[in-house]
Amino acid sequence: MAEEDSIERVERTELPAPMISRKEVSIWAILKNCIGKDLSKITMPVMLNEPLSFLQRLCEYMEYAHLLTQAAHQETPEDRMKYVAAFAVSALASNWERLGKPFNPLLGETYELQRDDYRIVCEQVSHHPPVSAFHAESNDFKFHGSINPKIKFWGKSVEVNPKGTVTIEFPKWNETYTWTNVNCCVHNIIVGKLWIEQYGKMVITNHATGHVANLTFKSAGSGAKHLHRVEGFVRDSSEKNIYFLYGKWTDFIKCCTAESYSQYIKQGTRKNEDGEAADSPNGTPKRMFSKLNSFKLSSFRSMSIQDNDSIPPLEQETNEIPKSDSAYSLDVPDSTLLWSCKPRPSNCEEYYHFTHFALQLNAMGKNMKPPLTLCPTDSRLRPDILYLEDGNLDGASKEKTRLEEKQRYTRKHRKSTNGDDWTPRWFKHVTSPYTKTEDWNYVGGYWDRKYDIANTIF
Ligand SMILES: CC(C)CCC[C@@H](C)[C@H]1CC[C@H]2[C@@H]3CC=C4C[C@@H](O)CC[C@]4(C)[C@H]3CC[C@]12C
């Protein structure tokens, strides 16, 4: 995969400037008139953004791409499925504590990432509704899909439904897997500490063999004992349980046989064991716990309260982040650890809680700058994002407005000249043969690097 990997990469450990305190902003003041609305249609102050485009956020799915390579190297469909499931969960780990809003990509914006073992290209293929398509490939797998996030504001919370299907293909096995990502909810918009929860069912289907992984992302709900927990079975086509997977999307995923799990349940160990061990593979999660419990989103918290703004009466509900209760942890004997989350950089609070992987996304390789290799529509060239990264809020805000106006103008002009015909450059609209839902397929050619894009979007 590494033909052009002479592209120089200097690993970043921080951004050019730390994030700016959001003390003067009240999210509630901005959003109080938007209850029930689709947040993608509302202009929000750039202060609530993080310096990444949503296309770059999608690339964060790839942080643990080695799990897909591992999956492709397994000999049985159930073993491949357990790694695919671990990948699907790992892809969501970067969302933990990430409470800034990524920039809406401009129509036709692209983003690429080349790593030693894979490469990925994304494009914003539709503006209303916003749809982002991505296509990743390696020697062992293809991973592609399109996401149309529905972001609704419900007063106390923001709810995200990442509509769209994602697909994995293993050419060697002639297998295709699909699933849909779970919903996510940002709590405490009005008052308290913001925190993120992902919940619901994720069903991963192997369309060639009929194997299914049925994962439940538990809602913290009433008690907090289920905070961030994920569990479920890998089944074969006769619906026989083969493996049991369990863990947390913020932490780790372990796997045991369905038999060991039912043995364990029969012994009644599930609810009263101590659970320390289960929460500490590699020692990482314990560290993350203590961090979570003491997690102070100082800048965010103050942005959600403003004295002279009328704050509606709250229902009786805690504004704290629920603490995970380790007494409910599972630790089934003979489990294997499929995935464990890398710890965040120690300075991450200053940098939008970015992972090490996210810190790299705006970095410009030495030979990348156009016309050398980089496509002129790449998110790395977006001036508003770069200004925010540099800590220049005014610049970011002005540029964001300018780009959005330019986009509106281009659209109007297009409408009057050719009836609003917009065709994405790298993807085509299809119906997925597996899910029968709308999707976008990569048409190829991006990596030939012959970019004939004349009028730039920035
Ligand atoms: C008012 C402020 C606090 C709102 C901030 C909203 C932020 C936290 C929202 C806006 C858009 C959201 C993203 C939209 C779509 C997806 C894809 C999904 O597969 C994982 C979650 C993820 C990546 C969401 C994470 C949370 C998110 C980034």
Summarize the structure in words.
Residues 398-408 have a biased composition (Basic and acidic residues). Keywords: Lipid transport, Lipid-binding, Transport. It comes from Drosophila guanche (Fruit fly). Helix content is 21%, strand content 26%. It is an alpha+beta fold and 458 residues long. A six-stranded antiparallel β-barrel has the order 6-7-10-11-9-8. A two-stranded parallel sheet has the order 1-2. A hairpin with a 6-residue loop joins β17 and β18. The two termini are 30 Å apart. Bound molecules: cholesterol. Cholesterol binds next to β2, β6, β7 and β10.
| Overall outline | globular
How much helix, percentage-wise, in residues? 10-25%
Q: What is the C-level CATH assignment?
A: Mainly Beta
CATH topology grouping: Porin
Largest sheet: 6 strands, antiparallel, barrel
How many beta-strand segments? 18
Overall mean pLDDT score? 85
Cofactors and ligands: cholesterol
Poorly predicted runs: 1-7, 272-316
CA distance, first residue to last residue: 30 Å
- Looking at the overall shape, the CATH architecture is Beta Barrel
Number of helices: 10
Helical/strand content category = alpha+beta
In N-to-C order, the SSE pattern is HEHHHEEEEEEEEEEEEEEHHHEHHHEE
